[in-house]
Amino acid sequence: MVVYAIIMAGGKGERFWPLSRAAKPKQFLPLTSSKTMLAETIERVRPMIPLERMYIVTSESMYDMALKAVDDLTGEHILVEPYGRNTGLAIGLAATHLLHEDPGATMVVLSADHLIRPAEKLLKILQDGCDIAANDDVLITVGIVPTRPETGYGYIKLGDAYNNDKGRSAVYRVSAFTEKPKLVMAREYYYSRKYLWNAGIFIWSAKAILNALHEYQPEMYSLLMDYSSVIGTDQEQSGRLKLYQEAPEISVDYAVLEHARNVLTVKADIVWDDVGSWIALERYKGRDVDNNLIVGEAVLIDSFETTVYNDSKGIVACLGLSDLVIVRASNITFISHRTKLDQIKELLAKLDEDENTRCYL
Q: How many structural domains are present in the chain?
């Protein structure tokens, strides 16, 4: 069994604006440690998967940043998407390249912007999943044991146990997927202990995921097979552009996992977070006695439950504030009430309407 890592690193990271911008999105920022999130992702799995068996899927504008993520990474291991078409096509592209290189390839699909601790537990989970995927025609998603009734994540409903050998991580058939439930349902899922968070971490053979695309997304599969015939030729670049122009835009969850009958989940009792917004940092960085989170130079008086992130020279001074998020990054100052952070994309759309403010995206 030969295992490859596919790292998805093409996201815009809009919910971390203005620190995360088009020129340097979230996965290329040191949000959770002194290393960029992409570098953390690579280093986390290197004890199991060497760098020469890792592929980063990203956009052309992020190619140079991806190349500099870690020493010794070469352009051969970066798969450039002409433009984003969601995870279904990105994973299909990677699987097609792996099958071309190694017909027996087993894939571990990771996101470049997740926080996961401890790494040793994750590696055990991935290895156990790979042992199954290398021998069985299955599609495996990693499910995280919930630590709160979260409404921002998808959930996996556990079915029957699957081939749980002694010493192996607990593996179950997937009974159902649920997307971002209302709070009352999230509480029910949390307390029932029959649901896991869908982490967006996948394990399968390249052959298995392409077979699933063949069955459930025949149009995409046909286009991928056309593209496969030009891999390694001088027509590869034009062939990839044609693929991305014609293939449907759909997530791998909707494309395959919610339809397939051979989906399993590995139960992972680890610390995991998709670090999806400024509020997420509060779960992993220390706060002061007034429950404020301060990163960079800032002084707060009579202020409570406020996050201040100062990435620039100078100081942020706050007096009599509560429940705010304040971010100073380069030439932008962003201030939002905590309850309004989910509307940040509306703000960015407003900036995009005016050519004078588009430069701040």
A: 2
